[in-house]
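User: Please fill in residues for this 235-position structure.
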């Protein structure tokens, strides 16, 4: 089969470029973080994990509870030594000889005073996290053209002067129409504080976006990445 000189090599380069462009458009991720270089992270044995804060988003109650549960599950999966606020309150209530849940309903300021002063007896650090962005946007993609290899048949004369049919490969332009895609954008902040001083010892902000995604799996990946890195720091 006769082939145009640039057919095969051009197709390989074109496919590689298109694949790279598709990957770049399909998903992106960035993060910034702060770490107290003087803090002994290896001494952390108990981590109080507060509920994820969704107050900056329009997520409904069902989705909020689902994502909040996933957040806690990712911490467990990455083997973070988690203690929940509920567990701390129960233990602290027994030590204080009073029901702190009832106290919180009657006198929140008094509850917070007792809780803050005694937290160090139950946790070394506490983590609070907040979802800053969780939304889907419709993105317009303009018309574009790619060059693709096409096989065509044509008649040529052979060495004896007879007409024969042969295949040839040529590169032709292909116009792709404009279209819209749905892109999910998520941004989450994580803050780790020392339970004794209240000082922030580690924090991270990570944001990602992905085409044609419901956002749930991406949310899980952001949480897993944070807890996985934090686990390495304390072990």
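Assistant: Residues filled in for all 235 positions:
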């Amino acid at each position: 089969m006769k082939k145009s000189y640039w057919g095969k090599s051009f197709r390989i380069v074109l496919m590689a470029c298109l694949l790279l462009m598709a990957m770049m458009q399909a998903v992106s991720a960035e993060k910034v973080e702060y770490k107290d270089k003087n803090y002994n992270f290896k001494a952390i044995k108990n981590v109080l994990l507060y509920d994820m804060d969704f107050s900056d988003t329009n997520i409904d109650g069902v989705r909020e509870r689902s994502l909040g549960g996933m957040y806690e599950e990712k911490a467990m999966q990455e083997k973070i030594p988690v203690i929940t606020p509920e567990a701390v309150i129960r233990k602290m209530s027994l030590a204080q000889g009073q029901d702190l849940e009832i106290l919180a309903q009657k006198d929140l300021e008094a509850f917070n005073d007792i809780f803050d002063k005694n937290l160090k007896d139950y946790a070394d650090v506490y983590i609070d996290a907040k979802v800053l962005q969780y939304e889907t946007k419709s993105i317009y993609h303009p018309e574009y053209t790619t060059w693709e290899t096409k096989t065509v048949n044509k008649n040529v004369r052979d060495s004896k002067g007879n007409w024969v049919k042969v295949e040839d490969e040529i590169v032709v332009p292909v116009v792709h129409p404009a279209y819209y895609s749905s892109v999910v954008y998520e941004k989450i902040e994580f803050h780790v504080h020392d339970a004794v001083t209240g000082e922030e010892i580690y924090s991270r902000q990570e944001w990602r976006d992905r085409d044609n995604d419901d956002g749930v799996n991406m949310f899980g990946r952001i949480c897993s990445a944070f807890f996985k890195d934090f686990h390495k720091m304390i072990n």
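For context: Confidence is low (pLDDT under 50) at residues 1-25.
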